[in-house]
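# nightly structure sweep
# worker-07 picked up a monomer target from the shared queue
# config: single-sequence mode, recycle default, output format = structure tokens
# input follows
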Amino acid sequence: MTAPGRRSSTFTRLLRHGFTDASAAERLLDSAELMPVRNDPVLLEALGATADPDQALLGLVRLLEAQPDPTARRELLDTLIAAKPLRDRLLGVLGASAALADHLARHPRDWHALVTYEPRDLHPGVEEFERGLAEAGDPVSLRVAYRRCLLSIAARDVCGTTNVAETAAELADLATATLRAALAIARAAAPEDAALCRLAVIAMGKCGGHELNYVSDVDVIFVGEAVDGADEGKALRAATKLASHMMRVCSETTVEGSIWPVDANLRPEGRNGPLVRTLSSHLAYYQRWAKTWEFQALLKARPVAGDIELGEEYVTALEPLVWQAAERENFVADVQKMRRRVVENIPAAEVDRELKLGPGGLRDVEFAVQLLQLVHGRADASLRSGTTLDALQALAAGGYVGRQDAVQLDDAYRFLRSMEHRIQLYRLRRTHLVPEDEADLRRIGRSLGLRADPVAELTREWRRHTAVVRRLHEKLFYRPLLDAVAQLAPGEARLSPEAARERLVALGYADPAAALRHLEALASGVTRKAAIQRTLLPVLLGWFADSADPDAGLLNFRKVSDALGKTPWYLRLLRDEGAAAENLARVLSAGRLAPDLLMRAPEAVALLGDGDAGGLGPRGRDHLEQEILAAVGRADGAVQAVTAARGVRRRELFRTAAADIVGSYGTETHPAEADQGALVDLVGAAVSDLTAATLAGTLRAVVRDGWGEDLPTRFAVIGMGRFGGHELGYGSDADVVFVHEPREGVDEREAADAANKVVSEMRRLLQIPSADPPLLIDADLRPEGKSGPLVRTLKSYEAYYRRWSLVWESQALLRAEPVAGDADLGRRFVELIDPLRYPARGLGDDAVREIRRLKARMEAERLPRGADPKLHTKLGPGGLSDVEWTVQLMQLRHGHAEPGLRTTRTRAALAAARAAGLIPAEDAETLDEAWVLATRVRNAVMLVRGRAGDTFPSDGREVAAVGRYLGYGDGMVGDMLDAYRRTARRARSVVEELFYGG
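# output follows
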């Protein structure tokens, strides 16, 4: 017996298996019907695997209650426990469809339809479904038999036996069999009418395309002819009666409900036209009166019932007209207009939940595919499929659609159709709206295999796929070149201003008028340059549209083109090397920093051409230093030498930023880098190496200008903070300390003066206003901070550290690493500080308390006024400071005993602590994830705004651009901020335990 106030073990198991109302589930399991199997673990596991365990259990109890006698109930239970295929199928259906659960409760023997598990039952076709409907002689029995067949389709679907395309094809085949059965009922009721005419039923829409939903209008067109010797008028009247009766058999509501509406409104003249026409009448209408959309609809025409021979004659007669439709005047504009009209007619309150018709919905994929089929299918018969996914595959195979685009559209279409299926399956109601109720979303998410956080995962995947469809649909659908292709205009394809304006609006340009002016400036005229631009721009516009600021991308492209337009290699690079054009588009529309760097020396565009072959790959420290020192050696004086060094730095900053952007956005041939830590490491190492090489070159220039080849004192630059840790960001200062050692026979004052002059001149030269970004040197981490001397001898450091060193200085020295100057002096400096940063006895309690006190004080005093602490990447909870201080505390405590901790790099030290068992693996992953994300946000802010920042921008476009860099699509800023808070919150809980509690 369970103690009062305590949950039973069954209650806990139910929650663990996904039940949301465990109390109700306990009562159902205790019911008489389930008593024989209530403790069988197989049953609970199977229920927990369903989309809605609560609903599946309730449906099972109802089905058991509905059995006619105890023997039948026992048979069901025994089969359920013993036969896994039935168990998975039956419970899967009950968990996914309340409507089919109701059907089983009304027809309790129909569960037997799910028992058979033979290969031929896995993928039934029209013939198998016709056998399943064979005994239905009236509308009521047809509905019962239809639902019985639907049970098997739904079971294969929810169990994953069939994929979404196969399920849609089976539903279309079942619809075909049902139309045939309904027509047979109509013929049997009026044999005299049947004797007068030939009647063909042509499936249109999704049924014709072999891609039907669970609940959808079945679109048809009727073709009638008189039998030999019969009067045509009487024959058409008879055919119309048969067609009308067939429609009623399927559509009317009975005690068993309806099947689905049969819609004949796609026929010539729509509702105003006759329900049945002869073949010649159809042909005359399409030759003279049909609109563009009617030919588009005929892409899916397929004879399914009645006189199949007559139906084939209909398709054969109209096929040439379908493939001539693209020659019609304003063909592309008509198709575009039709699509826009569909979107405009969606109620404003529903547009964001409209899975089929809304922007980025199923219809976008279908329209884009159909448009391309009509344009290219007249010359390429391989494109003439009525099935969307088959046609998309054929378009990709023929080169009419980029293969990567096709793969993404295929994935998105399958996901959205799967969502649509699951939504409709629940109540067997015709709807394309994503529900708002959390329980509904949870059921749908679980049915699609999203089990960790079904609602959040479903919403994220839905939005992601919608964004993909919207972007790719616009890229294909609004391509102005299609106008020219459709009309087969001779000569160079032109980018018309009108088509460009339409596309710009569709792609979300904030200032389409300004954008159009840029396009006109780039593409107008008859020069070779303009012709190449007209070829490039339709593709570039799609890539710009993939960013948060397409306007900036286009404006920057015009600036670069104006600067480089007369060089022979620029447009050739973009035209002939696909990577260069796409990489440039990504870089120009991702924010201010990379375009600003590029505008100062536009020839750096050439770096984008080699892509993965090495153009954007980071160059090593030795290579950079060799180039900079060579440039310094050729220069005339220190100013010119440092100018050259800063020029190299600017170019390499652009290379690094471009690689980071391209890696974050991905390209059509290479997806975005999944390992966010790899991108952080790339930037940190590249910028740190570049800074070290720049300092080495500047030091050489200053020494040569003031003293010739030898300075009177040995001199070394020690990197500190992020610099020493190889973790510099785009906007980071160079934290350093300077150490020198007088050469033999040199007076200490002379040596000190020389060392101070070197530091002063280095700082001055690296900050001289110029086209190149300044490099700020920060020496505040030196002994005594700002109050101490800027440069010390090695002996002075030794004396200071021996007598006065504070615990915060030992902590700061954890990141110390020589970066420039005398290598031997740098090595001896490291030997001097190692005992301080890796003390043999670790840290005493007083030192630990002091570090914690300093950390708490920093959190309280240094956070900027008005900043949201939860979103501050440096000082906020779970931010960089939290992670770094936690790692550094472990290094100070255990670095002497654990060699792996003796590193200046945060992530490497964290990994070493994990390997040494100093931190649980899960906690280490949490801290690493938070540190990487915070670093990525800081890098993103600098890339987007062109200036450093520790929190998310407030401007809408800027924060959207940060989101895009981090992998979030349009409209997902809230998701990005929530994800950051969640990641930081988890990290903070680890810090509370390890830093403050341990």
